[in-house]
Design goal:
two-stranded parallel ribbon; 5 strands; mainly alpha; single chain; globular; 46% helix
Length: 173
C-alpha cells in the first residue's frame, strides 16, 4: 500500500516484484514498472542479483527472508517490526554484520518533514527542555491486539526516541 507507490520518488530501478501469488506479482510489476515478476523470492534474488531488496511481508517472515538476502550479499530494507520476536531481530543484525551488509527497518515517521522541523525548532537554545510528547496520526486498515502495537504503536515509540533520546521506562494507558 505504501512502498511501491513511494518508489517513484526514489532514485531506484525496480528490477522485479515478488508475491506469494503470481498474479499479484505480475500486477505489481505492471503497475509499478518492473520488467520481471516472481512468486519465489529465492529465485528472484538468485536470478536478478539486486543490490538491495525490500522485504515487505508479515513480520513472522522478516527474519527468514532478510537473512537469506543478506547472506547473498544484498542490502535489505524491511517494514517494521524487524521480526516477530527478539530472536529473529537479533538474527538479522548478526547476519548483516557477518556479511557486511545493511539491514534497515522502515521507521520513517522520524524523517517526515514536520517531525524534522519540529525537532529543529525544539533544539533551539531558547525553546527550553522537552517535557511531554503526544503523537497522533491516521492509519489505514484497523488492526487489533499485538499487531496494532507492532504495526502502528512502534511509530509512536520511535518518535519518542527521536525527540527525547533512548527510553528508560514506558507506561501506556
Amino acid at each position: 500500500e505504501n512502498i511501491y507507490p513511494s518508489l517513484r520518488y526514489c532514485p531506484v530501478d525496480l528490477a522485479a516484484t515478488c508475491a506469494l501469488h503470481e498474479e499479484n506479482a505480475r500486477r505489481n510489476a505492471r503497475w509499478f514498472g518492473a520488467p520481471h515478476y516472481y512468486d519465489d523470492f529465492r529465485k528472484m534474488l538468485d536470478v536478478e542479483k539486486p543490490e538491495a531488496a525490500m522485504v515487505v511481508v508479515n513480520a513472522s517472515m522478516h527474519a527468514k527472508m532478510a537473512c537469506e538476502a543478506l547472506e547473498r550479499g544484498i542490502d535489505v530494507f524491511m517494514e517494521k517490526p524487524p521480526g516477530a520476536d527478539l530472536e529473529g531481530a537479533a538474527k538479522i543484525i548478526e547476519t548483516a554484520k557477518k556479511n557486511k551488509k545493511l539491514a534497515m527497518v522502515g521507521l520513517q515517521k522520524r524523517f517526515a518533514p514536520a517531525c524534522v522541523k519540529a525537532k529543529e525548532l525544539m533544539e533551539a537554545k531558547d525553546f527550553g527542555p522537552l517535557r511531554h510528547i503526544q503523537t497522533k496520526f491516521c492509519t489505514g486498515r484497523m488492526i487489533s491486539g499485538e499487531d496494532f502495537v507492532s504495526e502502528v504503536g512502534i511509530h509512536h515509540l520511535d518518535l519518542a526516541r527521536f525527540f527525547f533520546g533512548e527510553v528508560d521506562s514506558l507506561s501506556a494507558v
